[in-house]
Specification:
heterodimer, A: alpha+beta, 5-stranded mixed β-sheet, 18 strands, 18% helix, globular, B: 770 residues, mainly beta, 4 helices, 56% strand
């Protein structure tokens, strides 16, 4: 008994005396800034391109902010402040297709748009962006693919206590040959007004990637199970995307599901922007809103 | 016909003993008190260059050509470090079978005229084996370590050519290889998981261990199956004459070893156990840490006759975590919460030594190994059990033929049947919706090999050549992989104390550990090759110079090596390998190169002893699917690695030991930039990190000082107790294990930091023997 007490006391004393060493500082060379491109096509020959710049890893730390602030509001505000700082204004943004070049107009700081971008399947686009202040220039290419459209899509809540399981059954047209698709499921955010674009933009989302090797004879169908889906409605979209963008989305999903840098190598997102970052795409989805009531 | 007879005779020639022109002195070398077989004892004919060393079972055979000795008698000297040299006068021309029992040299400070250490060092210099480190356990008993726990793996990490992984862990990265490229054997049985507590403590209880040998290159033919190293650990046999005990009480664990004769000088046993009680200690202060680990080693040996001896060795070890919380009052179901895991090894080996005659010795080993982990949990109405297992059953047969003092032939074969049963999942309740039950992917895989090599002097004693071949193969799911592994080494002697050596070895590896993490996880699994995953292979050349300085009792060696590796395994970025039966989709294969220089200055005897080891090395990787196809550094490519280990007998009662290590930091893929990008669902904006090339950044170099002071009793009594007062990381400097971006303390913005795991950590231990 006495021996156990002595041993326990010694152990506790040693552990109290033990110190955590001071971390060592490190200086790393920061990469030079590059232009960052994102794009979104929309019905009506609309193409929107955002232009920003990359910055140092020491400017902002998403994880640190998340740990310090329990609300997303402060995090969003910080990102917005950074966006404002790094969005590029007065850039020359052009898209060349079908033998002509269209210059996009700046609508907001860092956001450029045009209403004259032909959206014929098979059209090839070349994007060129020049930041006139810094001289940075990037280029990229993309092809407008035949739009995917739902043949049918329906959602059904399964009566299983505790799972909040929703099954979504879908079918959409498939083009001949190998194709790549993305299905996105959006839940409504009950705190946002009904029937507004924000309603489905701030809730939960699920992304499903489908690679078709060309053997589906015109229709791709399937069922997706979504657990813990508490909301009474959802929006579902399908897009026909390029193989490059499919690979980008695969890496994006891996990054979000990564177990962390102690347990795996960090995930680098690919890019189709020459001399820059981001991704240039020209697809837009087919969207359906479904009620689960 | 004549040609056939000639060829047949030529091939048989090495096996024809030259009876009419020589005589043989053979036998066993043992510790005179305990009866332990002594491996690598030197047996020499005084005044000549004739000599051999005892094998791993203490057996030796020295063939003396008649005519080399004048007179009717000669003197045979048998020496081993820490023992008095024994001189025997024997008649010339008569075959002798000896049972040599050496007495321990209790007065370590006494100068001996004929140094056992000198004999051993000269044998090491004159041997064709290079790139090898042999460490009797007595040499490391006082080396300071984390938490005061003597750890043989951590001591090996202080040797040149052996790079450390994360601070405090048991990962070994030998000559640019990966952590799963080391074959660890405990009395011939493979040990898959060598670490407790996520690899922070090795599974080997030093009280049960006799010695260990690490081979990093110039691999002899009897070893194979891993690319980078063989760590051959031998357990003690058990005291043959008297009942003895030893043990220790430390901060983290206690251990007790009991050994003694079952039948004096004929059969003996050894039982050694160790358990950590960190859970018990914290419970006293009201903190519940329901984790512990234990090890149990068993050894029995029995001499049936002078020619036959049997050994049984067993090991059981486990990491256990058990969390159990009672249900809250009013809680539905009232079942509470329960979670636990078990992770452990079991090995059994049964060996039979047989001496056919004074020149032919054999060992037959039958071995089983079981490695398993299980994770279990229960909450609400859910139950979860995840299990993975590896089971090996195999046998090895090894022969040693001592043709003459300058020529030994070794040959044999082995077969192992592996059964893998990974990721068996049983779930009940709502959790089945998220994690379905699965029987896993059962895989049967067989590994086999035959080998033969000859170690002989050519054109006189100055030049000795070891040449041989190992032919290995594996079968899995009807697919066969095989290969030829040439092995050769050559020694040119520049006198009794100097030599130059060179070697070439090809190695093949048919299984690999699925893990992409920095630390060892319970869920790390071993898998065999498949249709898609090809065997790894390596070709290594080495060149070295060895010099023993008898006046300083010090050995100096310098070696350079180059290793080419093929079909190495890495994982795609972001690969999540936990419970992933489809991990092959995440796996990529490529090439690697490693080269460098190793320096070792070592002194094993005298008041001041220890070693200085330095390695200058490079290790790179080439994978088409990683790092945009460009070459990158291996994670543990540490350019400089320096270890200084010193033991000093201040007096008969006090020994001071110190270890100072310096190493270039391990490599990291660091985030250096970022950009903002709308997420693909257009529901927000994300900060996307920009990283360097893979492993492009070396963390800061680390250095650390550990010390240990041992206080021995005033008088040697039946109960011998020693106090060990140690300190890990005396000046509390961080050894970086990762790079973080943290907010500045006093200003806006962030900076890079490299935290360390362990700081200043004192330890106290009481070791005893009786």
């Amino acid at each position: 008994m006495r021996l156990r007490f002595i041993i326990s006391s010694l152990c506790c004393a040693a552990l109290l005396v033990a110190c955590q060493p001071e971390p060592l500082a490190l200086k790393l060379n920061e990469p030079p800034p590059k232009l960052v491109i994102a794009s979104q096509a929309a019905p009506g020959q609309v193409l929107v391109v955002t232009v920003s710049k990359s910055f140092s890893a020491l400017e902002y730390n998403e994880q640190e902010v998340d740990e310090e602030d329990s609300t997303n509001v402060d995090n969003t505000q910080e990102i917005n402040a950074l966006l404002n700082q790094f969005l590029v204004s007065n850039a020359l943004v052009t898209v060349t297709f079908d033998g002509r070049t269209e210059t996009l107009t700046q609508v907001e700081k860092g956001i450029y748009a045009s209403l004259n971008i032909n959206q014929n399947p098979g059209t090839e686009y070349e994007l060129r962006v020049i930041d006139q202040a810094s001289g940075l220039e990037v280029t990229s290419r993309a092809t407008f693919l035949e739009r995917a459209r739902f043949e049918s899509v329906e959602a059904r809540r399964k009566e299983e206590v505790g799972t909040e399981l929703v099954e979504v059954t879908y079918a959409f047209e498939d083009e001949p040959g190998p194709n790549w698709y993305v299905l996105t499921f959006y839940s409504e955010d009950p705190e946002e007004p009904e029937f507004t674009s924000l309603q489905y933009q701030t809730g939960r989302t699920e992304v499903v990637l489908i690679a078709d090797n060309g053997g589906n004879e015109g229709i791709i169908s399937g069922t997706e199970k979504l657990y813990q889906w508490e909301q009474d409605s959802m929006a579902v979209s399908v897009s026909n995307i390029s193989q490059e963008y499919y690979n980008y989305l695969q890496q994006w999903k891996k990054r979000n599901n990564s177990p962390g840098d102690l347990l795996s190598e960090p995930v680098t997102l690919p890019t189709n922007i020459r001399n820059g970052y981001g991704f240039f795409t020209t697809h837009y989805p087919d969207v359906r809103v479904l009620s689960l009531k | 016909m004549l040609l056939r007879i000639t060829l047949f005779g030529f091939f048989l020639l090495p096996f024809v003993p030259v009876f009419s022109q020589s005589f043989t002195v053979s036998g066993n070398v043992k510790d005179g008190e305990s009866g332990e077989q002594l491996m690598l004892a030197t047996i020499r004919v005084k005044g000549t260059s004739l000599g051999v060393t005892s094998n791993e079972y203490g057996f030796f055979s020295l063939v003396i050509p008649e005519g080399t000795l004048n007179g009717e008698t000669f003197t045979l000297e048998i020496a081993f470090v820490g023992y008095e040299v024994q001189s025997l006068t024997l008649p010339v021309g008569t075959n002798q079978s000896l049972k040599v029992q050496l007495e321990a040299n209790v007065n370590q400070l006494k100068q001996v005229e004929i140094s056992a250490e000198q004999s051993r060092q000269q044998e090491e210099v004159q041997s064709t084996q290079m790139s090898a480190i042999h460490l009797p356990i007595k040499q490391i008993a006082y080396v300071p370590s984390l938490g005061g726990e003597t750890d043989i793996i951590k001591v090996m990490q202080l040797m040149p050519g052996v790079a450390r992984g994360t601070e405090g862990t048991t990962g070994m990265f030998v000559r640019g290889g990966d952590a799963d490229q080391n074959l660890v054997l405990l009395d011939e049985a493979t040990v898959y998981n060598v670490g407790h507590l996520f690899g922070f403590f090795s599974v080997f209880n030093s009280d049960a261990i006799k010695d260990m040998t690490m081979i990093k290159g110039g691999f002899p033919g009897q070893y194979g199956g891993r690319l980078s190293s063989i760590l051959d650990i031998r357990m003690k046999d058990g005291h043959a004459n008297k009942f003895h005990g030893s043990g220790g009480v430390g901060l983290l664990s206690s251990r007790l070893t009991l050994e003694g004769p079952i039948v004096k000088n004929k059969a003996s046993f050894l039982v050694s156990g160790r358990r950590t009680y960190i859970d018990q200690v914290f419970r006293r202060v009201g903190v519940n840490i329901p984790y512990y680990f234990y090890d149990l080693n068993l050894k029995f040996n029995y001499s049936l006759s002078e020619k036959d001896r049997f050994y049984y060795s067993g090991y059981i070890g486990d990491d256990v975590l058990k969390i159990s919380e009672a249900a809250e009052p009013g809680e539905e179901d009232g079942l509470g919460f329960r979670f636990g895991f078990n992770l452990g090894n079991k090995t059994h080996s049964l060996r039979w030594n047989h001496v056919y005659n004074d020149r032919l010795f054999s060992n037959l080993s039958l071995i089983t190994t079981n490695f398993s982990y299980s994770i279990n949990g229960a909450f609400d109405n859910n139950n979860l059990l995840i299990r993975s297992k590896i089971r090996d059953i195999g046998g090895k047969m090894d022969y040693q033929f001592f043709r003459n003092s300058g020529h030994t032939i070794r040959f044999g074969g082995q077969f192992i049947d592996h059964q893998f049963n990974p990721n068996v999942v049983n779930t009940q309740g709502d959790i089945t919706e998220v994690l379905e039950s699965s029987s896993g992917r059962r895989i049967g895989f067989q590994e086999m090999a035959i080998y033969g090599h000859s170690d002989q002097e050519i054109w006189g004693p100055n030049l000795k050549l070891n040449y041989g071949l190992r032919i290995s193969g594996s079968t899995v799911n009807g697919k066969f992989y095989g290969g030829i592994e040439p092995r050769t080494s050559i020694r040119y002697s520049m006198g009794p104390n100097r030599s130059v050596k060179a070697s070439y070895a090809r190695m093949k590896q048919y299984m690999h550990r699925v893990s992409s993490s920095t630390i060892a996880l319970p869920t790390d699994l071993w898998y065999p090759v498949t249709d898609q995953v090809k065997p790894q292979s390596s070709d290594q050349v080495a060149l070295g110079y060895n010099h023993y300085l008898p006046k300083l009792k010090t050995t100096f060696s310098i070696e350079s090596y180059y290793k080419w590796m093929n079909n190495l395994i890495e994982y795609r970025e972001g690969a999540n390998l936990i419970l992933n039966n489809e991990f092959e989709n995440e796996l990529v294969q490529g090439k690697g190169d490693a080269y460098g220089f190793e320096f070792l200055l070592k002194r094993d005897e005298g008041r001041l002893n220890g070693w200085v080891g330095y390695t200058l090395s490079w290790a790179t990787r080439d994978f088409d699917e990683l790092n945009n196809g460009e070459r990158f550094f291996a994670k543990y490519d540490r350019r400089h690695d320096l270890s200084i280990v010193a033991n000093y007998d201040l007096s008969k009662r006090i020994t001071i030991s110190a270890v100072w290590v310096y190493a270039t930091g391990s490599r990291f893929t660091a985030q250096t930039g970022q950009y903002l990008m709308p997420n693909p669902t257009l529901t927000g904006v994300e900060a996307i990190p920009i990283y360097t090339d893979r492993n492009a950044v070396a963390m800061s170099a680390s250095h650390r000082l550990d010390v240990n002071v041992v206080l021995k009793p005033k008088k040697e009594r039946k109960w011998h107790g020693e106090w060990h007062f140690g300190c890990y990381n005396l000046y509390n400097r961080a050894t970086p294990y990762r790079i973080e971006i943290v907010a500045n303390d006093n200003s806006l913005g962030y900076n890079y930091q490299q935290p360390g795991l362990f700081g200043f950590l004192p330890s106290i231990a009481y070791n005893f023997r009786f």
